[in-house]
Amino acid sequence: MTDLTRRPGIVSRLLSAPLAAAGLAAVFTAALWLPTASFAQDLSQAPLAAPSADISFLGLFLQAHFVVKLVMIGLITSSIWVWAIIIDKWMLFSRNKREMDRFEQVFWSGQSLEDLYRTLAGRSNQGMAAIFVAAMREWKRTYEGSARSFAGLNQRLDKVMNVTIAREVERLESRLLVLATVGSAGPFIGLFGTVWGIMTSFQSIAASKNTSLAVVAPGIAEALFATAMGLIAAIPATIFYNKFISQTGRQAQRLEGFADEFSAILSRQIDERG
Which residues form the MotA/TolQ/ExbB proton channel domain (predicted)? Predict the structure, then answer.
């Protein structure tokens, strides 16, 4: 049997085998650990992905601050109110124009004033018909009264017709102040919502310490949405306010022109009967 103690090469190889295995295991473990640790470190240093935000109109409203929501609700309500007034006034001015055209056609057709008065006396009249009925009522009170007072009749007729014209113009101008108010104040109310939204958006950015576009965009979009709502309410209000004011002026001129012509007719009859 060979004496192993006299063979130092074999002993050294047998003793170094466990050490080599342990070294390989250590190297293998380190190889596995280092990428894992590096990956964990990279992951901890990487910015967190921003949560996806809904930038639809409904999403912007639901994500908005409470104050911005109140501004949006107020502007939406104002916009609905404005369009209701616009539709109502459009129909009113169109109807008034048709009625004035129809009345002028009948009035200048040669029909007796007494017959026309009896036809219109029991109705709810507007426009020229209201002026005609009011003047004829004062005329008949004077001629059918026990004491006929022709003195100052022309002045009384003019006053009655002027009062009727003022009432008609007031009816035409009713609720136009709402259009003027929304048209002038709407953009500023929307701007207030925008400023408030941007302030809260900056506060959120400072709290999250994340300035990526995915974080900044929803807050800025919701703030600008308030300005858009203000413009949506204000632009139609301003346009149709100017249009209706112009139509009111034209129809008032037609009423005043008819009142002057009718006053001249009645004045001529007063002179003939006086």
Answer: 127-256
